[in-house]
Amino acid sequence: MSNSLAIGTAALLLSAACGGLTSAPPSTVVYQADYPSYGTAGDLAQQATLIVEARFNEEPRVEMEFPSDASDITDPQLNPNAGVPEQEQLKDRTGPVVTVHRATVEKVHKGPVKPGDIIEVKEMGGTLDGVRYENADSAPIATGRSYLLFLETYPDSPASLLNPLQAKYELDADGNPASAPGNTITLTGVDLAKIIDK
User: Fold this and answer.
1) Which residues, at least 6 apart from 146, have a Cβ–Cβ distance to it below 8 Å?
2) Which of 110, 138, 75 is nearest to 196 (CA)?
3) Residue 103 pairs with which residues in a beta bridge?
4) What CA dihedral angle connects 157, 158, 162 and 164, to 10 degrees?
5) How far is Cα 9 from Cα 85, in angstroms, rounded to an integer?
6) CB 190: neighbour CB atoms within 10 A?
7) What is the pTM of this model?
8) Which pLDDT tens digit goes with each residue over 33-88?
9) Residue 108, SS3?
């Protein structure tokens, strides 16, 4: 089981929208979660079950992900209270809001998919019922763009990034991966080929 998303430790900061006769902006909830950090691209590649270059052309869906009732599940994706001290555990049945993206695989570096396959990738955040949920750690995947992704897959749930900042690289017109601001792991296509061949 993975600890790629410690939702249970998320601190939610809610700023209420102002009422009035005019249309009010949505309230905002900022998720601050505890993710594993990786030292090198090789560490990411070793941990990932799927490494692909994929294009996101469809509008994503936003939904609430409900936690499992099973307290013995240690995967924070399924049980947000996994590994969280009892006094800090979530007591209700609401889960985090996630955006589920559908993407077309363009190139496979690791994993049991092939070019042309459609995969689903979830990220924390999105707008649901007039409330905007944001991930404090990174900008969301943008529709109409291609990315190199280091993913963890699940049998009954969309794949998730190993780390929202370190495991997502937007590809330029020539297919070169670019690190997001704040991501200290940089790599090229040549670097990735060397890592995968190890």
Assistant:
1) 53, 54, 55, 56, 106, 170, 171, 175
2) 110
3) 119
4) -130
5) 9
6) 8
7) 0.75
8) 888 999 999 999 999 999 999 999 999 999 988 655 545 555 555 555 555 666 55
9) strand
Structure token digits, residue 122: 């979830």
**Cα 53–59–60 angle (5° rounding)?**
80
pLDDT at 137: 80
Rounded CA-CA distance 160/149 in Å is 9
Query: CA of 21: how far to CAs of 14, 51, 93, 128, 132, in Å?
Result: 22, 49, 34, 22, 21
Instruction: Indicate whether 22 pLDDT > 60.
Output: no
Residues 6+ apart with CB under 8 A from 17: 24, 25, 26, 27
12 with 111: CB under 8 angstroms? no
CA distance 9 to 78: 14
